[in-house]
Amino acid sequence: MRHEGVRVVVGILSDTHDKVEATRMALATLGHGGAEFYIHCGDVGGEQILDLLAGLPCAFVWGNNDWDRTSLLRYAEQLGLNCYGNQADLELDGKRIVVMHGDHESAKRKALESQEYDYLLHGHTHMREDRRVGRTRVINPGALHRAREKTVATLNLSTDLLRFVAVNI
Fold this sequence. Notes:
- This protein is α/β, with parallel strands linked by helices and 169 residues long.
- It has helices at 20-32, 47-53, 69-79, 105-114, and strands at 9-13, 37-40, 58-60, 87-92, 95-100, 119-121, 129-133, 136-140, 151-156, 161-166.
- It is built from four helices and ten strands; from the N terminus they run E-H-E-H-E-H-E-E-H-E-E-E-E-E.
- It has a five-stranded mixed β-sheet with strand order 3-2-1-9-10, with helices on one face. A five-stranded mixed β-sheet has the order 4-5-6-8-7, with helices on one face.
């Protein structure tokens, strides 16, 4: 899906696991860091996290701990949020971005082998990551739950500048 008119700084978060205060602080941190579009890489956790995303230009995918997907999807639709199921294929600022939680290695491998994407954004491991596989930059922003250091990330799509940011709870 294309998002026309979206600026170039993307705020990336994952593995919120219904941690409301941590997510509230993370979104504020990302906003202060210039984020103008937000991507959640799964394990949202519940309706309260969707409430925090409501009104923001954003996209999210499911994680392996998003159990009640039917009611969460219904709630997300009521809020006007874009849920892409298990995988999103986005184009922002002329860049192809695939978003997945990362718990399905075969999907990750297939996306990387295709070399169709500028970025692969994922979560699941609760550990931040930044590496390249061919032309694709693989980014995990870290987690806001069960992580020694709670982190999110901003990515400037024009300059390819990635910044991991600690969220102090």
